[in-house]
Amino acid sequence: MEELISKCWQINKAFQIGVQALDEEMKTIIHIADDNEPLMVIESRKSMLGEIQKELVQANKGSFCYQTDTFQLSYLAVPINKDKRYAGMVVVGPFLNERVSDHMIWNVIKQNNLENNWLKKLETYYKSLPLLAQSYLAIGDLVVNIVMNPYVKAQIIASKHSSEKYRLDVEPNDYDQSGVEIKKRYEAEKKLLHYIENGDKENAMKAMLDHHTGDFLYRVPGNPLRARKNITFSGNTMYRIAAGNGGVEPQYLHAISEKFALNIESAVTMSELNKIDVSMIDEYCEAVKNFAIKGYSSVVKKALMYINLHFHESINLQTVADVIGFNRTYLAKKFKSEMNLSVIDYIQRKRIDEAKFLIELGRLSTTEVGLQVGFSSYNYFCKVFKEITGMTASEYKRNKQVELEAHA
């Protein structure tokens, strides 16, 4: 028993994750977990443990069970065997297999019939959990070996080699030659963040051109694309903070920031990153303009936030009204009065704006773009695209390619 408990602590410390050991009668031997687990999550896990036990009793030696519940919480379970007989299990989790996003949390809320006010509580809880993604397979393999093999207490041997104190290799006078350029760049950065904070897109775009001078690609030798991505990630963080100072709510900022973080990481060319730079400034400025400066009513702000996060899904006026908790007729009237657009028109414009961005990135066909931004058919996407932009999606793509070639 003491060895099993030691192994559970070993797993917990190694992976910073919850661990529970249960005997064959489902009685808890040890449970290492944070005390911030919502009661409904605990109840969900309890109901799932019986199913996991059935799988493990029949499993081959060296197997582990992987299961995800309706809260998108994942668990690994490894059998405890005594004399080739099932004697209990070690359950590792919960952990996440996808990044936390409002889209994910809304799905959890709907699936479990929770009130909308659970959004913030669940976000806080999910952010306290480890994100394992596909590494859960390797961790499962390690946990099997830890549980099955005898526990050996390791000893640490400290190295006796002395270490030199950290010393700066660059002295202040090394900056004399380029000091003026550096000062200009940081002044431009201040202006750029100021304009984003105020939702001033036109001046922010001008300031971006001044700010993006200088070549920092040397910071990751031999990998200029990674260096450029790192710079773009920094920009995403700064713009998010500036928009937050401009009055944009944290949950919406989180969604924008996460979307661009994924776009940046998946980019494969410098030109893609240039387009992402422009799109980030555009969207953060729009967020400030929509949620702070204009001072929309509470109902319209809630509708805007939900639409901006979920326009790629199958949503309409009734969907938005149900989610934000307002009467459909009242929402339609207030939205039209304050936005000079119907809810459906606004949804379509958001979809087309995103479609233009994806077309410019050039990684998807126009058919794939239409489906990705929320249209149920390619023909309908083409119809709406032409109504809003005055040209077809294919024409827009050709025009952008001509512009790129002209600037090449």
Automatic annotation (TrEMBL):
InterPro entries (alphabetical): Homeodomain-like_sf (IPR009057), HTH_AraC (IPR018060)
Any matching Pfam family: HTH_18
UniProt keyword Transcription regulation present: yes
Domain HTH araC/xylS-type as annotated: residue spans: 301-399
Keyword set includes Manganese: no
PROSITE patterns on file: HTH_ARAC_FAMILY_2
Alphabetized SUPFAM superfamilies for the sequence: Homeodomain-like (SSF46689)
Keyword line: DNA-binding, Transcription, Transcription regulation
PANTHER family referenced in this protein's UniProt entry, alphabetically: ARAC-FAMILY TRANSCRIPTIONAL REGULATOR (PTHR43280), HTH-TYPE TRANSCRIPTIONAL REGULATOR EXSA (PTHR43280:SF2)
Name recorded for this polypeptide: AraC family transcriptional regulator
Organism field: Neobacillus driksii
